[in-house]
Amino acid sequence: MKIMNFLVFLLLATMTGASVNAQVVSQREQNGAQVSEVAFDASGHRVQATVIEPRNKSGKLAGVVYANDAADAGQIFANEALVLASRGTVSVIITLPKAADEAQRIAVVQRALDLAVEHGAAVTRLAFVGCGEGRALAAPLATADTRVKSYVLHGGSPEAPTPSGGKVLVQDGKADADARRERVQFLTTSLKPY
User: Fold this and answer.
1) Most CB atoms within 10 A, among 34, 55, 142, 153?
2) Phi first, then psi: what are they for 47, rounded to 5°?
3) Going residue by residue through the chain (194 aa), what tens digit of pLDDT does each one get?
4) What share of the chain is helix, strand, coil (3-state, %, to 5)?
5) Which residues make beta-bridge pairs with 27?
6) CATH classification of the domain holding 154
7) What are the residues whose beta carbons fall under 8 Å from the beta carbon of 114, sequence distance 6 or more?
8) How far apart are CA 39 and CA 191, in angstroms?
9) Domain tally for the chain?
C-alpha cells in the first residue's frame, strides 16, 4: 500500500501546470483588491478557495497559497492577504479536505498553486503558508513541487519536518498580531523579484 501511495504521489506531482477550471461562486472588491470565492476539483475532492489579488495588476506578481484544515481559513487569512495584495501578491486560501490523505492534500495544494499562477503570479515567486494540518505538508510539498521558493510553518505539530531548500519561517507560540506581521514581512521580502 505504501508503494501505491508513493506512486500516486509521484503521478500527482507531475500533473501541475494544467488549467484549474475554477468555478467563481462570488466576487467583490475590498480595499483595492479583487476577492473571489471559487471552487475547484482536485484529487477527487471539491475544494473551496478564496482568491485575493490586486485589482490593478502589472507584471508578474508574487503568489501565496495558504493551506489550513480549519473551515474558516478564508476568514482567518483574509486581512493578511489584503495587505499582501496591496504589495503585489495573489493569495489563494484553501481549506484542506478532511477526508484526504497526504498525497491528495499535496495535489490540492498544487492545484491552488496553479490557480495563483492563472491569476498572474510568477512561477518563480510562489510561497506556501501551512497552518494546522497544512504545516505537515511543507516537506512533502517541497519534494513534489519545486515551484515553491518560500515556506511559512505556523501552528500545528512542531515535530512536522521542515522542507529543505527555499526560505523557511517557523512560527510557534506567537500571538496572532505578531505572527501576522512577521509572516507579511517574510513573504514580502522573500518573494521579491530576483
Assistant:
1) 153
2) -115, 130
3) 444 444 344 444 444 455 778 889 999 999 999 999 999 999 899 999 999 999 987 788 999 999 988 777 667 889 999 999 999 999 999 999 988 999 999 999 999 999 999 999 999 999 999 988 888 999 999 999 999 999 999 876 667 777 877 898 888 766 667 888 899 999 999 998 75
4) 35, 35, 30
5) 36
6) 3.40.50.1820
7) 16, 17, 18, 19, 20
8) 26
9) 1
Cell numbers linked to 18: 494544467
Residues in the chain: 194
Q: Residue 57: which residues within 8 A CB-CB, separation 6 or more?
A: 120
Which three cell numbers, joined as nine digits, stand for 179? 505572527
Name the phi and psi angles at 89, rounded to 5: -125, 135
Amino acid letter at 70?
Answer: A
- pTM for the predicted model, two decimal places: 0.85
Residue ranges making up the domain that contains 61: 2-190
